[in-house]
Amino acid sequence: MVRLTADLIWKSPHFFNAIKERELDLRGNKIPVIENLGATEDQFDTIDLSDNEIVKLENMPYLNRLGTLIINNNRITRINPKIGEFLPKLHTLVLTNNRLVNLAEIDPLASLTKLHFLSLLDNNITKKPNYRLYVIHKLKSLRVLDFKKVKGKERAEAEHLFASKEVEEEARRESVKTFTPGEVPNVLEVDEEQQAPKVVAPTPEQIIAIK
């Protein structure tokens, strides 16, 4: 395990990426906890925390400039309910290959009012009933989900399906009760080898496409 210290941040690669945005590369450091990102002094448009061991998407400082957060191939099971207060301009979030299981776990993303592009591929949540419509319903600003454009027809269908709070609550309860093959309950202890996330990174073309 490696702590995300100010020293690590300063020594990590930073560059202008393919779309001319300033990017900080913190990939593959076995970081377990997000911390000390205030040391970036809000100088980056994109931060890449892929291929680490982060369990919770929380403890973010106020980063008014940050537009893209890439955090695939981690172990995320929880998201700070107030994440939008700290990342007011975040428009792109890549959470491919994490451990989000139930629909309610993405509710905090509704606080990201500028979020246009989201990937939840290779999370068990994607196998839940009405997953796509639920996410579209909760995230009003979303334009692209899992690299597929959100269509007006889908938006209308989502609003019709979840017209009442009761239906929304039932969908959350059903997602908890629905067992997905291959799903490992959070309460179980698994050995380190089983915990190691598989590497499923978006291609450079996909990252450029979502931006």
From TrEMBL:
Record Gene3D superfamilies: Ribonuclease Inhibitor
One molecular function GO term is: U2 snRNA binding
Q: Name one GO cellular component term.
A: spliceosomal complex
Do the record's keywords include Transcription regulation? no
Q: Which PROSITE patterns match?
A: LRR
Domain U2A'/phosphoprotein 32 family A C-terminal intervals: 128-146
Q: Name one GO biological process term.
A: mRNA splicing, via spliceosome
UniProt xrefs under InterPro entries: Leu-rich_rpt (IPR001611), LRR_dom_sf (IPR032675), RU2A (IPR044640), U2A'_phosphoprotein32A_C (IPR003603)
Q: Which key words are in the record? A: Leucine-rich repeat, mRNA processing, mRNA splicing, Nucleus, Repeat, Ribonucleoprotein, Spliceosome
State its location(s). Nucleus
Task: Extract the Pfam families matched here.
Answer: LRR_9
Give the UniProt family note.
Belongs to the U2 small nuclear ribonucleoprotein A family.
Q: What name does UniProt use for this protein?
A: U2 SMALL NUCLEAR RIBONUCLEOPROTEIN A
The organism's taxonomic lineage, starting at the top? Eukaryota, Viridiplantae, Streptophyta, Embryophyta, Tracheophyta
